[in-house]
Write a structure and sequence with these properties.
It is a single chain. About 0% of the residues have low confidence. The longest helix is centred in the first third of the chain and has 28 residues. Strand 9 and strand 10 form a beta hairpin. The two termini are about 45 Å apart. Helices cover about 50% and strands about 10% of the residues. The chain is elongated. The strands form five sheets. Strands 3-5-6 form a three-stranded mixed sheet. Helix 2 packs antiparallel against helix 5 and helix 3 crosses helix 4.
């Protein structure tokens, strides 16, 4: 069982490493649609070709009575026999997993399991990440069940007096393979234990998953974490990076900041929403967008969301005079903001005439006057805990005079993570997608 854990961790780490290299190749060279389609066609053709070559070359023919499958495949075998390799390939992956778990000893030759395990491992590694729907859970279980059953056959051949159940080794091999790839422990232990319907398997499955995770973590991260980093998704970890207390908000924040004045022209609001993809904008006083303020962006008044601005423009809540004397928001209610949720219209769908663009919009009745803000000297761990504990998307950074100097988003925080190279722990900065 200990060998199962180690093999699961090593094979999982190898799977993740190969898939990482393939994903890098896809990002650099197969970003066009025709290239992605061509790769999918090539994978399908190679998978079918390799399967038929293995089925023809191995000729692992078994008597029909020994296979519990109601629809055995005779391919390249004599009458009254079925092809064990063909059964593994032509059954659904779920049925193949069941067969490796429950079929009696002698159903599959060691050579059949060895070739199937290696080929299916490589095909599953190549398939994950294609631009077509493809799974990871069942292919990992099937690969692990194949080498787990092969390991059980070896134990039974070496120590025939033990009378072991080969199917149990297939189960533990499946758990080790899946745990070595995705590095999840508790959830997989519950899923696999429920699948077996026997609570006595809970402890060995948990031990196998934990050991496979430890072995795999020595070499690389789990496959899901690898793809999160490859796609530059701003996922925050549970805890801030260690030894990051010396990093302050002024080093993390985005600068310069796109701000709006308390009474802003419709034309500028429209241009800001077209040119920027941010979800929230600080609202300030004493700021001229045409004048460089030397690093500050006016006195902070509050925060307004992109969705609120969209609704205000859609309802045309404009002041007909630039001085803001005539207001037209008296009939606006909370229902107007809620009825468009969650699919707010885009700024391109809202028509603004030339005359309306010259009007102004008073944002003060709609802003959040007390959003979460931090001082420029706030530490990274403190900002991190605010985001994790409160589920924030952005937080405004102010100087000692209560003027806006920057804004911190989840993407700004996700850029930093701890790294361990040659026994030295440090902080590294990642490239995070802003699309």
């Amino acid at each position: 069982m200990n060998i199962n854990k180690i093999v699961g961790g090593l094979s999982g780490a190898l799977f993740n490493h190969i898939n990482y290299k393939l994903s890098i190749f896809r990002i650099r060279h197969l970003y066009r649609r025709w290239g992605q389609l061509l790769e999918a066609v090539i994978v399908a053709a190679i998978s079918a070709t390799v399967a038929f070559v293995l089925i023809y070359s191995t000729r692992d023919c078994q008597s029909l009575g020994s296979d519990p499958n109601p629809y055995p495949v005779q391919l390249f075998c004599s009458d009254g026999e079925y092809n064990a390799m063909a059964s593994l390939f032509f059954q659904t992956p779920e049925e193949s997993v069941k067969s490796l778990f429950h079929d009696i000893a002698g159903t599959y030759q060691p050579l059949t399991l060895s070739l199937f395990c290696v080929v299916y491992f490589l095909l599953a590694c190549w398939t994950y990440g294609l631009s077509v729907p493809s799974g990871l859970f069942i292919p990992s279980l099937l690969t692990g069940a194949a080498w787990g059953r092969l390991f059980g056959i070896g134990i039974d051949y070496t120590f025939p007096s033990l009378g072991i159940d080969i199917g149990k080794y297939a189960l533990l091999g499946a758990a080790a393979q899946l745990g070595g790839i995705v590095r999840m422990t508790l959830s997989l232990a519950v899923i696999l234990t429920e699948a077996t319907g026997n609570i006595t398997f809970g402890l060995p499955i948990m031990l196998v998953l934990v050991m496979a995770k430890w072995v795999g973590d020595y070499f690389n991260e789990g496959l899901y974490d690898i793809h999160i980093h490859l796609q530059s998704v701003p996922i925050l970890k549970w805890e801030p990076p260690p030894i990051s207390s010396n990093i302050v908000a002024s080093e993390v924040m985005s600068h310069p900041v796109v701000v709006l004045r308390s009474v802003e022209t419709v034309e500028r609001i429209q241009n800001v929403l077209k040119n920027e993809q941010h979800n929230g904008f600080p609202v300030v006083d004493d700021f001229d967008p045409d004048v460089d303020e030397g690093g500050t962006f006016g006195s902070f008044r509050g925060l307004i969301l992109r969705s609120q601005l969209i609704v205000l423009l859609k309802k045309k809540v404009f002041n007909s005079q630039k001085n803001g004397v005539v207001n037209r928001y008296s009939n606006l209610t909370l229902r107007n903001f809620r009825e468009a949720y969650p699919r707010f219209p885009t700024i391109e769908e809202i028509h603004i005439s030339v005359h309306e663009a010259q009007c102004t919009l008073d944002l003060r009745p709609f802003i959040n006057p007390s959003p979460y803000v931090v001082n420029k000297n706030a530490s990274l761990p403190r900002i991190f805990k605010l985001f994790r504990g409160l589920g924030l998307r952005h937080i405004v950074v102010l100087d000692n005079k209560h003027c806006v100097i920057g804004i911190v988003t989840r993407k700004d925080l996700a850029r930093y993570r701890s790294c361990d190279k040659d026994g030295k722990v440090g902080i590294e900065e990642l490239n995070i997608s802003h699309t």
